[in-house]
Write a structure and sequence with these properties.
The chain is an alpha/beta fold and about 260 residues long. It has helices spanning about 5-15, 20-25, 50-55, 75-80, 95-110, 110-115, 130, 150, 155-160, 165-185, 205-215, 240; strands at about 30-35, 45, 65, 90, 120, 135-140, 185-195, 215-220, 230, 235, 245-255. The strands form two sheets. Strands 3, 4, 5, 6, 7, 8, 9, 10 and 11 form a nine-stranded mixed beta sheet that branches. A two-stranded antiparallel ribbon has the order 1-2. It binds S-adenosylmethionine. S-adenosylmethionine binds near residues 69, 73 and 124.
Length: about 260
């Protein structure tokens, strides 16, 4: 496989938009600085699309919040802002090395009082529902994905890419999302997000959820200051916005 295979696959999806989108994915991403509590010396830099996505999860003071795939921690900082006066945050990350980085980020950017209400865990997001159910008001699932922006920058990985990769990742993402919907409380929300441009990993995962569990959930049409709506969610792409890629969809558990 080669960059041609990759480009052929995505030019079928994005048609005449693809050359400009590919060029935007190869350019340096624009980042925003975040220092929500002013306790760090330097801001934490992340894509503004990530801030927009994390803010799309409905959270009220006092809520129990779970960030299922949290490292390195940018979106956890955004979630933590929302529970600054009351509430709890569990920041989960399965990889030990990435979890250590998550811990450093949270310790650097969150004030001590808030840190006491934050717990860092290291579980497999897709199996969480075996151990805990109906336990959180709001869950962020920022799922591991194809991350094409990073892929394009690594010729060896790009050479190994096949369309099966995105289909395989979509299955893993679905397993995590199905688990999250048992872990969130009735009337609670799950925000599903990826940094993939592949419809299989984005609307495709939500479509499967609707087919399999449609009677238990509702998909709430999101909106954001920039980006575009998709069939089920919201997509921020760098050819039109300078930010992203970032896809998100908001799901409410109904029963
Ligand atoms: C897209 S990144 C998360 C980025 C993070 N939310 C942020 O804003 O900084 C996905 C993360 O999920 C982790 N991960 C992969 N498989 C996982 C699993 N089964 N359970 C929990 N975390 C997992 C990866 O190690 C990676 O750190």
């Amino acid at each position: 496989m080669s960059q041609n295979t990759f480009s052929e696959f995505f030019s079928q999806i994005y048609a005449e938009r693809w050359p400009k989108l590919l060029a935007a994915l190869q350019a340096k991403p624009r980042q925003e600085g975040l220092n929500p509590f002013g306790c760090a010396d330097e801001p934490y830099f992340l894509d503004a699309a990530s801030i927009v996505a994390a803010r799309a999860l409905p959270i009220s003071p006092g809520h129990a919040v779970l960030d299922l795939c949290a490292a390195p921690g940018g979106k956890s900082l955004v979630l933590a802002e929302r529970i600054k006066d009351a509430g709890t945050l569990v920041a989960n990350e399965r990889s030990a090395t990435r979890r250590a980085r998550l811990k450093r980020v949270l310790e650097e950017y969150l004030p001590e009082e808030l840190l006491r209400r934050v717990r860092i865990t290291g579980h497999d997001a897709s199996k969480w529902c075996i151990y805990e159910k109906d336990a959180y008001d709001a869950i962020l699932l920022d799922a591991p994905c194809s991350s094409e922006r990073h892929l394009i920058a690594q010729p060896k990985l790009l050479a190994e890419w096949t369309p099966n990769r995105t289909r395989f990742l979509a299955q893993r993402q679905y397993a995590m999302l199905a688990s999250a919907l048992q872990v969130v409380r009735v009337d609670g929300h799950v925000l599903y997000a990826t940094c993939s441009i592949s419809p299989f990993e984005n609307d495709g995962v939500i479509e499967k959820l609707i087919k399999k569990r449609g009677e238990k959930i509702s998909v709430i049409p999101p909106s954001a200051p920039f980006g575009e709506s998709t069939r089920y969610g919201w997509l921020i792409l760098p050819d039109t916005t300078e930010f992203g890629p970032l896809y998100f969809a908001l799901i409410k558990r109904e029963c």
